[in-house]
């Protein structure tokens, strides 16, 4: 049994990240941390509408009605 998954710490927030296909942003834990490390988070933040209408939440908004 030597199949224990390789894990790394997110460079941005130190959260433990499993190094496999389930972590597309590895070594970061999430896209946000990746953007922060790349220095692009500031730009991304300006684009986020205050209304909360983010395209990633399509599924969620469907359940609203
Ligand atoms: Zn992180």
TrEMBL record:
Binds 1 zinc ion. The keyword Ribonucleoprotein does not apply. It comes from the Bacteria. Its cofactor is Zn(2+). Keywords: Metal-binding, Zinc. Pfam families: YacG. Residues 44-65 are annotated as: Disordered. One of its GO terms (biological process) is regulation of DNA-templated transcription. The keyword Zinc applies. Residues 55-65 have a biased composition (Acidic residues). One of its GO terms (molecular function) is DNA topoisomerase type II (double strand cut, ATP-hydrolyzing) inhibitor activity. Zn(2+) binds at residues 10, 13, 29, 33. Inhibits all the catalytic activities of DNA gyrase by preventing its interaction with DNA. Acts by binding directly to the C-terminal domain of GyrB, which probably disrupts DNA binding by the gyrase. PANTHER family: DNA GYRASE INHIBITOR YACG. Interacts with GyrB. Belongs to the DNA gyrase inhibitor YacG family. This is DNA gyrase inhibitor YacG. It comes from Pragia fontium DSM 5563 = ATCC 49100. The lineage of its organism: Bacteria, Pseudomonadati, Pseudomonadota, Gammaproteobacteria, Enterobacterales. The gene is yacG.
